[in-house]
Amino acid sequence: MTGIEEDPRVAGLRSAVSRLRRQLAALPAEFPDRVIAEDELAALAAMAVSGIPEIPRLRRSLLLIAGAIGSVSALAVSLAEVRTAVELFGEPPRR
C-alpha cells in the first residue's frame, strides 16, 4: 500500500464503466452507434484510471453513451449505474 487513498467516486466510476463495457461486449445485437458507445466507454475508463476526471468531459461522454445505447433495454441498469457514478462528481463549473 502506498498510503494514497483512492477517491471512492473514481472507484465507483471505474466499476460501473467496466460492468457496462462487459455487458456491451457480450451483447450479440449490432446497432448503428455501438462503436460510439465503445469509444466513449473506453474514454471514461481511461479517465477513471488517470485520477479525478474532468466533469464536462465525463458528462459529454455520458450523453454520447446514453444516446448510443439508450434504447437497448438489456443495458439500461448498467447505463443507469454509469450515470449515477458520473453524477457523484457534481455539476460542471458555471461559466
Could you name the key traits of this structure?
single chain; 95 residues; mainly alpha; 4 helices; 0% strand; globular
Describe the structure.
- This protein has 4 helices and no strands.
- It has helices at 8-26, 34-50, 55-69, 76-87.
Write the layout of secondary structure elements.
Elements: H1 8-26, H2 34-50, H3 55-69, H4 76-87
Helix pairs in contact: 1-2, 1-4, 2-3, 3-4
* Model regions low in confidence, pLDDT < 50 over at least 5 residues: none
Task: Work out the radius of gyration.
Answer: 13 Å
- The portion of residues forming beta strands comes to under 5%
Helix share bin? 55-70%
> Which word captures the global form?
globular
Averaged pLDDT: 90
Biggest pleated sheet: none
Structural class: mainly alpha
Give me the strand/helix succession. Answer: HHHH
DSSP E strands, number: 0
User: How many alpha or pi helices?
Assistant: 4
Q: Report how far the terminal alpha carbons are from each other.
A: 39 Å
Write a compact overview of the structure shown.
This protein has 95 residues and is an all-alpha fold.
